[in-house]
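Field reference: sequence -> structure
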Amino acid sequence: MTPVAALLARRIAANGPITVADYMAEALGHPVHGYYRSRDPLGAAGDFTTAPEISQMFGELIGLWAAVVWQQMGSPGPVRLVELGPGRGTLMADFLRAARLVPGFRESIRLHLVETSRPLRERQKQALAASGVAVDWHDDIASVPDGPIILVANEFFDALPIRQLQRLPGGWHERLVDLDEAGTGFRFVVSPGLSTGAALLDPGVRETAPAGAIAEICPAGLAISAAIGARLKAEGGASLLIDYGTARSAPGDSFQALKAHRFHDPLTDPGTADLTAHVDFQALSRAAVEAGAVAQGPVEQGTFLTALGIEARAETLRQSGAADVDAALRRLIDAREMGSLFKILALTGPTLDGPLPGFGG
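Structure field:
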């Protein structure tokens, strides 16, 4: 057994089956053996690759998007630039380079990165050293100082722990992780009683899902989205949430693992593979709006990047002799690649008028 598996096995043997959320939280976030606490998961030598790692175009366009939004906000100074889960710092390095094109924007930025992984914090420090922008790191968004914000979260919400519910003839029950019969591995079981988590389901899913259906809720994601919404209402600003998932709430089992860029059994070798689930953008939007924000989108990533001018940027890079531009462009915007699976949701404070770039503006 992996160290995390051994810890989970002892916990289950002592106290009984645990929720999928508890399983994910331990496998990903254990302070010593957790997947995100003990390694750099990105790139060819890791387990997955994100859009900023595919091409500089992604971070550059997000940076220009933010600069235009800053102008729509009235060009406040200072503005808190916040990134949740910044990875290796690649997106932010490209963002800050593009930000120089808009006078005054880069000088107004106070950069705050929300990152719990110490290895990744070191990578971010290295990536941003040449930018000349001071960085403050945080374990959560609550410690970011007051003031208007521009917030970016790319592939952050998909790694937050989810709960899974299954509809049986008598109602919704919790899907749990238990030891297998041999006591050496893990399996899914269903709680004998009804789950209180059913109250968090979208009403349409809760009432109309067929018998046997599995539905997912992400309490941590809803809480963070609500916190962003409350912050935007109180301080003003905008946020951009980028992830793979569904535009509308729907039943389905999306719990999965990636290891060495291949799908992996999520109940095998916990702590050594990335565990994720599809993001429910309708649920995130509802949580933020109920907290006082205004939502725009979600729109598909391909649509968004095309509206921001990624094809023109690609042509400039081709003319400069950059390699693999066409392959990167295809991965980012093609519907068969990341273009349709990935969605982008914008949240703003109630005083920010008009559509944002990429959302009709």
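Note: The first strand starts at residue 18 and ends at 19.
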